[in-house]
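dude i think i finally got it to work??
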Amino acid sequence: MTGADPGRVLAAGDSFMPAALFTAALAGLGDAVSVTELQVADPGPRPADPAVREYIGDPAELAAAVAGHDVLLVHGAPVTATVLDAAPLRLVCCARGGPVNIDVAAASARGIPVTNAPGRNAEAVAELTIAFALMLIRGVPAAARFLAAGGQLGGSTYEGSEFIGGEAPSLTLGLVGLGHVGREVAARARALGFTLLGYDPVPPAAVPPGVTLTGLDDLLDRSDLVSLHARATADNRHMFGADAFARMPRGAMFINTARQSLVDEDALARALASGALAGAALDVAEPRPAGNRHPLLELPNVIITPHIGGATRETLRRGAEMAAAAVGRLLSGGIPDHLVNPEVLAKEAAQ
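look at this
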């Protein structure tokens, strides 16, 4: 991909991230790239593939389209071994933080470098987290449901007496996970005056300003509001269960804008129904069978949104720009940033 021949790039968009966003980001490379757009569709249920997950589209469609290309850019399209075998790819870029829709092991075995876009949604998720925090401490879920259930607006100064809440400077916010999102939440929460505690299963290289690093049990004991930002792994499923909620002060509140697998939702429901927790806000929740309403939606002190944390125009643009930057680095003979499998290029350089 050097010299006069342009790099042949397939930009595969999906219902969340249109292919045109990739094309726009690649425009800065000028004639150095030739871009083909593919907008994948969701064909419905497919056989499970242990190598890829959380994807949209048909691998066969992507394999047919990628033939003859040097670079593949995706957001949620499935990059399976079959897709990787369909073209002499020099690079695969995934415009999301976790490239779970790419068979990275298969790419590495074929000597194909893979990049991702870590932190591209951190600001968006942090803003939603802060919105959740403020709504919880001001009792917005119960107040909004009061009106939705027929409560009247009487115009009295004293109507709010039923929904007395708190203010940020009087409360302690515990952050579980101090990665890209946790650090952005810390910056915004510090500006609002929260006292900040932090814990990360993987000790962070640097602690955000204003955050006191502590153990998880101590954080749970001392926090009025706990916000979860840890990365989901096979070892931390349901890290927030009955024991964790029991440690939190009575009347504390809980936020999860990370992954649903980190929370035992039955234990959370019990803690909320009993009054042990005063409220919760979730941007992720375990899916229920079609037609079955999620039971947490019935609780008056709960906010649930349908995974909108990273759903901003800015997040999508950053993801596309990070992918385009990786292509530009490769075109110029450099090493792309955010390599998921850096050993591939290290091995190539050593030969």
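The first strand starts at residue 7 and ends at 13.
im so relieved honestly
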